[in-house]
Amino acid sequence: MPELPEVETIARMLAPRLIGRRIRRVEIRSRRVLAGDARRLKLLRGRFVREVSRRAKFLLLHLDRGVVAIHLGMTGHLRWNGRAGPHTRAVLVFDRGRLLFDDPRQFGRLEAGDEGPPRRLEKLGPEAQAITPAELARRLAGRRAPIKALLMDQRILAGLGNIYSDEALFRAGIHPKTPGGRLSWDRLERLVRAIRRVLAEAIVAGGSSISDYVNADGEPGWFQFRHRVYRRTGQPCLRCGAPIRRIVIAQRGTHYCPRCQRR
Questions:
Q1: 119 is catalytic
Q2: Is 63 in the same domain as 151?
Q3: What is the pTM of this model?
Q4: Using one digit for the tens of pLDDT, what is the confidence trace for 82-135?
Q5: 3-state DSSP call for residue 130?
Q6: Is 5 one of the catalytic residues?
Q7: Is residue 85 domain-shared with residue 21, that is, in the same domain?
């Protein structure tokens, strides 16, 4: 699933292409990808884009009236001026250019709001890039769940997923099964620094292309070549040489170094 760096990359690419453009029509080719009141999408004709942003893993098109929120799900892509194919689920046609929403597995969602972003975005926690040690400590207080599971909980921290949780925990030297509420202040500070650093580096590299992700021009990201633990099971740790291990936490494959990330 595309995480914060991937969606941020797409937002930055689309902003100069979409801002000021007016929507001519919206073509829906699969109702499965629609969320909220589908009738609102028919009212987008004639509205223009004034801003493109990201909230957690959502891409937001701020219009002169209302907002379009796009979540890519597991296999979704946004392609600028691409050619429609069998997996194209929606097309936003502008006065110049068009944006295609492709999604083979149809777990992604497209939603329009008349007043502002969808209400479900109100339940999201603070942005992972903006979290402070004090705020993270408050949100983890009393939690017995593994820190890996808590980092992926979008109500606690918005934008992190499987890839960058693993990478940040490795850099912070924290075992993924450590109960979140038991992290010391020193470890919290290390974790926050690691989260910010790994996200910043991934954005510069255009995100990680593990299976399906490509940017708005159909190009892959490059941060996967800088992963230190994610999907490196059995390979030597780049820091100490110990074989990277894989376990399952919250039904997600989790990668860590047993020597650098002791419990």
A1: no
A2: no
A3: 0.94
A4: 889 999 999 999 999 999 999 999 999 999 887 767 778 889 999 999 999 999
A5: helix
A6: no
A7: yes
